[in-house]
Specification:
Shape: globular
Order of helices and strands: EHEHEHEHEHEHHH
Strand order of the largest sheet: 3-2-1-4-5-6
Distance between the termini: 50 Å
Helix content: 40-55%
Strand content: 5-15%
Structural class: alpha/beta
Number of helices: 8
Number of strands: 6
CATH superfamily: Glycogen Phosphorylase B
CATH class: Alpha Beta
Length: 187
């Protein structure tokens, strides 16, 4: 499987709409961070589409052909298939209220590299399922990606924790229990 040190470049995956504002800012940060670690062995699959696709694509033209794969919009099943083939989920998450994509990635066994900001920390478990970096620190974000890309053992360890975290701590039954307790407190 991908997390057993199969060799080859680390397969980075991101899933996000391509629109202006904080989504475009996250794509900008991701491209800048990957430029910092361009000498490392990685590929990136970008899943998503939107009205800012041309601008997003321009951010990644600096990388050699074949290093970035663009899927466009795909079905939920295809997203799961891409996640299953990946090694690391990378998305800065500037302005993310919660980030369901982080949960889906963890459920597929991908460790996450994101920013320690807004709702991201509530969707992951820092240092166990995700490496979180300070907002705006491009070098730290790139270094976190490089750390996971270069350490298959750490990826495997975090992948196992990511699966159990998504299954046991961020599931529908747990969410229903939290809502039920909140309703009981106010009624």
């Amino acid at each position: 499987t991908r997390k057993t040190g199969r060799g080859g470049p680390a397969r980075l995956i991101t899933v996000a709409m391509m629109r202006g504002g904080v989504k475009l800012e996250s794509y900008e940060m991701l491209a800048q961070a990957l430029a910092v670690i361009a000498g490392h062995d990685w590929t990136l699959t970008i899943i998503g589409d939107g009205r800012e696709r041309a601008r997003v694509e321009k951010l990644f033209v600096q990388f050699e052909p074949g290093r970035i794969t663009w899927t466009g919009e795909v079905s939920p099943g295809e997203v799961r298939s891409h996640l299953a083939d990946g090694d690391i989920f990378v998305w800065p998450g500037i302005g993310e209220a919660y980030g369901l994509a982080y949960l889906e990635a963890q459920a597929a066994g991908l460790p996450v590299v994101a920013l320690d900001t807004h709702g991201v920390p509530s969707a992951v478990e820092a240092k166990r399922t995700a490496l979180l970096t300070p907002p705006g620190d491009i070098a730290a974000y790139g270094a976190a990606i490089a750390r996971l890309a270069g350490d298959a053992a750490l990826r495997r360890k975090m992948a196992a924790k990511a699966i159990s975290f998504a299954r046991d701590e961020r599931n529908i039954a747990m969410a229903a229990d939290v809502i039920d307790k909140a309703i009981r407190r106010i009624s």
